[in-house]
Amino acid sequence: MADGQWWAYLQAQLEQRGWKPAQLARASGVSESRISDWRKRGSPPTIPNARAVAEALGEPLVPLLVGAGLLEPGEARQSLSAYSVRELLDEVDARFGELTSRVPDVHVNKATFDRGNPLQLVADSPSTEPMRVQQEREWLSEAERPDEPGPDTGA
Fold this sequence. Notes:
Layout: H1 5-17, H2 21-28, H3 32-41, H4 47-57, H5 61-67, H6 73-76, H7 85-101, H8 131-144
């Protein structure tokens, strides 16, 4: 690691959040004198201090260590074979839970068919037929449409 790379990374993280080193010290439990050492001497953190900083910043530890130059990107990656099926499923479950927690819990009262976005999230409207039936009818009508005149149709 180049001298000061940890501090440069950390300073960018602080600036991004509008924090001062004292705020990081309070949030992480790392002493202000230790943070000052990182800044003045370019010294790297211990793993417990890096873990505390990662938690305070709301960042995962391994990407923080890579961003700070304490780990090479290749060192942070492991082959999928290094994980058990249970560990992989747990990770997928955790990431799915994190993503779904960000989706607003709203009900769609009117179904919409937007040809520009086939993945648009829609829900059954209580006053109409189920979306599955509506979608099948839409697909059927698209499939039965005649081709546009052009070079491929012989028109």
